[in-house]
Specification:
The chain has 268 residues and is an alpha+beta fold. It folds into 2 domains: 143 residues, D-Maltodextrin-Binding Protein, domain 2, CATH 3.40.190; 99 residues, Periplasmic binding protein-like II (D-Maltodextrin-Binding Protein, domain 2). Helices cover 45% and strands 20% of the residues. The protein has a 5-stranded mixed β-sheet, sandwiched between helices. Strands 1-8-2-9 form a 4-stranded antiparallel β-sheet. It is globular.
Amino acid sequence: MWDFEHSPLQEELAQRYQIDWMQPSECADRLANGTADLGNVPIAALATNPSLRIVPGCTIASKGRIRSLLLVHRASQELNAIRSVALDTASRTTVTYARILFKKWWNPGAQFVSMAADLDAMLDRADAAVVIGDPALLALEEQANRRERTGEELVYHDLAHEWRILTGLPYVSAVWATASSGVLNEHIVEDTIRSRDNGLANIDALVSEWSKKIPVPAETIRTYLTENIHYVLDEECIEGIRGFFRYAAEAGALPQYDFELSGQSVSK
């Protein structure tokens, strides 16, 4: 979002786009009901809203550890013994990945319950917790403090890393998408790719901005932006999306969805 929030292009883009901020799952709903034209949406939304079209070029993915998507459980309990999982439902896609991992590899009998992203409350209610985004980053930073406070030893599984080990595929979280009735033109593709690239060229400024917004060390934010997240919708990520939908259908987590990219170039 660099160009949409910073000069010199912010003013130009404001003439073409009105920006509204919300959870990724709500972005998908807005596209589906016609109250938005372009959104950064969880890939799981494509299966339930097949009219959505992916905008080529950009993604939010990871080809290793992502840090901001965690499964947390007590060290005294193995993964195959986990019976209940509390889910932070900020992203439909992460919830689906978790369901696939349990169904296919860990414990197919595990039950899921939706909860707000509060690790202590989630672990009071369930054997394990899935936390997403800033709460996950904060949970990693607070590991030592929590252990000292509670005397409890926890295990923190990076979901992208686990997915990569088990499937060999990158973990793809979200893409830019439009409704089929919307206009997918070169302006949108060029604007989003250029904004991504200019953001990557201004990492120092982003680290400075975000270290003032969330209580995470600047170097952790730098590592997150430069090493944990992959931003290019390349061929490997396309295969990752196809694999995600295949596994999701097998696990009964999503309806069958034959993913295609509408004949567009997949990377730039």
